[in-house]
């Protein structure tokens, strides 16, 4: 479904105290998903999902080109699949660890082509990801203790323990190889990993891992905050963005880090450079709240970047920036005077005193000012006119979860936070060590993935 909106965005120049008008044209689409692409579901709450789960698509996006009939074609990728928060898993001896519910545990992360034509955006194809040997992977977490493990134990919808998947991926970005357009580059939140894949078959050609092909500091990403965006430059270098500031010392809640790391991989030489992206730290309650949504290439050194998150006043902000790495410093191996990571410094001037130059950034727009309603913007692509930006959000597979028959705490208050409960793998839920009748149920939302097009009044390469 398409809706056109012409909005007048007023940008206030604080120095000159003048308002400059810039017209941005917005096209709004709900991504139509044929039922043939739905995720089969036969679990406890299958009666509420007679057609399975609607495929989640839009975690990452790139532009492919025009089809023969004039349709605009994009590649979009989904994430690790249907999942929900779960009680902490009691491993034994009173110890508990994070857990995640996977109601369709055999789901394979997938990507496909979206065609925009005749007032519709329709998912036209879907390809499953496979490991280097051609076997289907899943979105379940990689084993505990492995490099890049999130520390989560996978549970089914009855809270039984599932197997880990050594090849598991939580995919979040996609772009096209510039040397061979048959191949794609994807990124993941678990490892975080980068992978080059055969776009025709979904088979991984080469996987890049922290501590091997990638710097080990990438593995200090916050859990489920790994690589969130990927963009391939004209010379075929691969830029990825860690979603949030790295947890370099286990004190992420207190972190006042002034930047988020960007990694630039040169597949030809295997070298990796790292850059400091200055998120707008003062706009958030804490530095760890700032997130990057996706990246798209403008030139060899310039990129479009989504920054998003809840601001200090609780409002959602999704600004878009043009960033430039031309004069930025490669911070690989750069540490403080006492040998600590740069994220431990709370003052940008202190980082710059070490000879570090940050990436520069220029704000283009905040799409929440232009009518965007989803809380997340996860994929972006730039069309050839250099004025039109495509943005996607996924639908979280069309369901949410709720706490049924919640326990009450000592103050008589309802306990509705799933992580306050524990489970032992038998399906029983406990609160403070006592068995309770609480359940974590799934229910449909009917939410569609979104694809919006924003056409600016001037080219992105002029910012």
Automatic annotation (TrEMBL):
It comes from the Bacteria. The keyword Signal applies. Residues 1-21 form the signal peptide. Residues 73-397 form the Phytase-like domain. Pfam families: Phytase-like. Keywords: Signal. PANTHER family: BLR7070 PROTEIN, PHYTASE-LIKE DOMAIN-CONTAINING PROTEIN. This is Phytase-like domain-containing protein. It comes from Pseudodesulfovibrio aespoeensis (strain ATCC 700646 / DSM 10631 / Aspo-2).
């Amino acid at each position: 479904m398409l809706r056109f909106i012409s909005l007048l965005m007023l940008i206030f120049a604080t120095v000159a105290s003048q308002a400059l008008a810039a017209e941005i044209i917005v096209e709004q689409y709900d991504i139509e998903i044929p039922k043939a692409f739905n995720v089969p579901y036969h679990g406890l709450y299958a009666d509420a999902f007679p057609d399975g789960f609607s495929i989640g698509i839009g975690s990452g996006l790139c532009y492919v080109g025009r089809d023969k009939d004039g349709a605009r074609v994009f590649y979009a990728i989904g994430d690790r699949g249907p999942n929900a928060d779960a009680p902490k898993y009691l491993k034994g001896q009173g110890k508990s660890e994070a857990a995640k519910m996977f109601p369709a545990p055999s789901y394979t992360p997938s990507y496909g082509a979206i065609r925009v034509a005749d007032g519709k955006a329709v998912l036209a194809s879907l390809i499953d990801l496979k490991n280097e040997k051609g076997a289907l992977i899943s979105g379940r977490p990689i084993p505990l203790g492995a490099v890049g493990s999130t520390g989560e134990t996978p549970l089914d919808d009855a809270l039984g323990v599932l197997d880990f998947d050594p090849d598991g991926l939580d995919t979040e970005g996609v772009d096209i190889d510039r040397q061979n357009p048959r191949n794609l580059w994807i990124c993941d939140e678990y490892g975080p990993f980068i992978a080059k894949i055969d776009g025709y078959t979904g088979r991984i050609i080469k996987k890049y891992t922290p501590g091997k092909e990638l710097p080990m500091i990438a593995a200090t990403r916050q859990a489920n905050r790994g690589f969130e965006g990927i963009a391939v430059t004209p010379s075929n270098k691969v830029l990825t963005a860690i979603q949030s500031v790295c947890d370099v010392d286990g004190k992420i809640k207190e972190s006042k880090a002034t930047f988020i790391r960007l990694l630039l991989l040169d597949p030809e030489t295997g070298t990796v450079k790292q850059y400091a992206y200055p998120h707008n730290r003062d706009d958030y309650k804490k530095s760890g709240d700032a997130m990057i949504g996706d990246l798209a290439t403008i030139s060899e050194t310039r990129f479009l970047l989504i920054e998003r998150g809840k601001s200090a006043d609780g409002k959602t902000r999704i600004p878009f920036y043009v960033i430039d790495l031309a004069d930025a410093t490669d911070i690989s191996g750069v540490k403080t005077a006492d040998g600590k990571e740069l994220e431990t410094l709370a003052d940008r001037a202190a980082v710059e005193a070490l000879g570090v130059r940050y990436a520069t950034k220029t704000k283009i727009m905040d799409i929440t000012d232009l009518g965007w309603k989803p809380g997340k913007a996860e994929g972006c692509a730039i069309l050839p006119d250099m004025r039109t930006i495509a943005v996607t959000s996924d639908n979280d597979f069309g369901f949410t979860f709720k706490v049924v028959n919640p326990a009450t705490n000592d103050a008589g208050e309802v306990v509705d936070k799933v992580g306050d409960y524990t489970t032992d793998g038998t399906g029983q839920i406990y609160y403070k060590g006592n068995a309770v009748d609480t359940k974590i149920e799934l229910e449909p939302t009917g939410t569609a993935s979104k694809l919006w097009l924003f056409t600016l009044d001037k080219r992105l390469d002029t910012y």
